[in-house]
What does this fold into?
Amino acid sequence: MEIIKIMPCLDMKDGKVVKGIHFVDLKDAGDPVENAAFYQKEGADELAMLDIAATLENRKTRLEWVTNVSSVISIPLTVGGGIATLKDIELVLEAGANKISMNSAAVKDPLLIKEAAEKFGSDTITVAVDAKSNKEMPSGFELVVSGGTKPVGKDAVEWAKYCQELGAGIILPTSMDGDGTQAGYDLKFTRAISEAVEVPVVASGGAGTLEHFYEGVTLGGARILLAASVFHYRLLSIREVKEYLRGKGLQVNLE
It folds into this structure.
C-alpha cells in the first residue's frame, strides 16, 4: 500500500504566512521560518511554499524566502508563485527548493512543462491546477489562473491530463470554491483529476477535520494531503492526522 504524505502549505505575502478564504480576505498566520521548523518537527513529510502574490504583482518568487525556509528543514520543499522560465526554476532550486510548482506560466506556455521536466526531471515539476465550478465544461470544472482571478475557458481535468503528457510529475488541484473554508476538499474535483492522471495528485483546499484528510485519499484518490489553515491555527496537529489515518488503515510515516 502506498504511503500517504502530509504537506502543510505556507502561503506567502509580504514576508509573512497568510491564509484566506476563496483566495481572498488574507490574514496573518505567522513567520514562515518558524512555521517550517515547527512542521518538520511535527512530522510533516513535505512542505509547500507558495508566493501567492507574485503573479498578480508581476514579479518573481522572493528567493530569500526560499533560502530562509529551506535552511531550517530537511524534508522536500515545493515552491510556487511567479515561476515563468527555466531560469526561474533553476534559481528557486539553487535557493534550496527540491521541487517547483507552476500554474499561470504553464497555461500561458505549456511547452515550459516539457522543457522543465526534461531539464530538471519530472519529479521536480508540479503543476497547480486551480479551478472553479462551471457546468459548461465537460468535467464541470474550469481552469483559472492569476490567483483565481482569471477564468481561462479550458476544462481543468483535460488540462491536467495534458500536463501529465508534457512531463509533469505531480498535479496539485485546488478548487477555489473550497479554498480556506475548512469544509472539506472538493472531492469531486480531486477525484476527477486523480482518475484522469497516473502521477501523484495532491488534495488541496478546504481541509478542516480529520475525516476530510481520510476522504481526500479514499474518495478523492489523492496520495499527498495539503493543508494550511487547520495547521497554521493549530486546530489539528500533523501527528493527530497521521494517527487518525493509520487507525483507518492507511499507510503513513509515523516516526
